[in-house]
Amino acid sequence: SSDLGSTAGAQFKAPAAMVELRLETDDHERFKGEHFVAVRIGEAQKMTKLGSSRNYRFPASAVGERKYGKVEVYKRVGSCAVSIEGDAATATNEYRVKVGSEEEISFKIAVSKQKDGAKTEG
Fold it and tell me: In terms of pTM, does the model score above 0.70?
């Protein structure tokens, strides 16, 4: 007879695996240009412009033991260009983004150059 001890009847979970979600829509033409799709699992989020189809891959580390992810649709309400080259990019600059016809949000944006693969704070 084998001694199973306290593990008898226990459920063992397989390690988390990478997950790929494929989103397809026939409605993209009605909303193209200003709409974005975000797919999130835990703290990992991927965002793209709304299109007819797109694959989103999440590593096992993001999936963990989660059973659900989230799909969100966003609409652009404002934008501005940010300088990433030259003298303007070497200091913290203030940018204003118009939101609607009368409101704006002010941002202080600092740009720093990093070598490929370097992690930045934030």
Answer: no
